[in-house]
Amino acid sequence: MPAYDHAFDWARRHVGSGALPTAVLGIATAEGIVALEAFGGASADDHYPVFSVTKPIVGLAALRLIEQGRLTPETPLTTAVPQFGAGRDDVVRLRHLVSHTSGIVEPPLDTPAGLRPSLLASGRDFPAGTVSRYSTIAFEGVAALIEQASGAPWERSVAELGARAGAPGFTFDADATPHAPVDAAAHGVDYERFAALRHPGAGLVARASDLLALGSALLRNDGTVVTPLSAEAMLRPLTAGLPKLEPYRAERGQDWGFTWNLRHSGPGLLARDTFGHGGWAGAEFWLTPSRGVCFVLLTNIGGGFARLGVDADELHNAVAAAAG
Fold first, then answer.
1. CATH homologous superfamily for 5-323?
2. Domains of the chain: which residue ranges?
3. Residues whose CB falls within 8 Å of the CB of residue 140, separated by 6 or more in sequence, listed in order
4. Is the pLDDT of residue 1 over 60?
5. Does pLDDT of 150 surpass 80?
6. What's the mean pLDDT in 286-312?
7. For residue 247, is the peptide bond before it cis, meaning its omega torsion is within 30 degrees of 0?
8. How far apart are CA 53 and CA 265, in angstroms?
9. How far apart are CA 287 and CA 138, in angstroms?
10. Alpha-carbon distance 231 to 214, whole Å?
11. From CA 298, how far away is CA 210, in angstroms rounded?
12. In contact, 129 and 212? CB cutoff 8 Å
């Protein structure tokens, strides 16, 4: 089994310097967890808010319904939310919602208006499918489609996904975590108000072991989470050739698949098949199938650690290189 000393030294160094308040780093293969360590007074079994790492989890729940013939990527949002689209002459479909190409005007992450009113706000940013601009409110639409297709609250589909993957700790209850983001308000988010939204695009609270169990299942690609056909489809770029606006500009070397960030040309990465997602408070969940490895970093720095000059690509490369 490869030694991942450099990866764990990376986490230890950044917690020791004070850049990260706490951290949990875990690494897994298709066989399961191979290394897991906590830093800064955290426990390896602690729950953390993972913010936008929520998106691919909810996306996998939607994919399961596609497999069951209850949705397709072409299903219009109005199937579940007939009131949607005031002032729009285009059709927003599931594939637009999951690939940040819906053109829905983005409210604040902690929107005081509430999620459904924000989704239904009139107007648009751009016509659906013509531009890629990162969107979290779009996942309120994904959740609505999941509910319409499954006949149950969308959270149930997420819980069922966790059960299949051996990840029972997935929750949208912010009281489960002792690691609220440090300095959230200073970086524009009222965490208490945000947590009360139970946001389907950013509200998940999870343990490193939960995400590693999911990563292992995806690396095995044995149908536990979604079928191999769906696994192939979810990694098909949906934004190739489209203009890409801040913060995910074309120079970042990525496209969006079915909710996944496909870092196929990331200039800072050694690997070219890495996919996964990051979160607003510094959570990172990434898989590199060619190396048979995934990693999870959980931390709690408001606004993410990139603002402090911490470069996650260093961690990516330390994990991928050690995996061989």
1. DD-peptidase/beta-lactamase superfamily (3.40.710.10)
2. 5-323
3. 115, 116, 118, 119, 199, 200, 201
4. no
5. yes
6. 95
7. yes
8. 21
9. 24
10. 13
11. 12
12. no
Look at residue 3 and tell me whether its pLDDT is greater than 90: no
d(CA 183, CA 305): 12
Its pTM surpasses 0.90: yes
Q: What is the pLDDT of residues 60-85, one digit of tens each?
A: 999 999 999 999 999 999 999 999 99
Residue 198 carries which side chain, given as an amino acid letter? R
Is the distance from CB of 258 to CB of 59 less than 8 angstroms? yes
Structure-block tokens of residue 182: 């440090």
| 297 phi, psi to nearest 5 deg | -120, 125
Conformation bin of residue 111: beta by default, left when phi > 0, alpha when psi is -120 to 50 = beta
- Give the pLDDT of residue 2: 65
Nearest residue to 60 (alpha-carbon basis) of 179, 157, 194: 157
Across all residues in the chain, what is the average pLDDT? Answer: 97
123: number of Cβ within 10 Å: 10
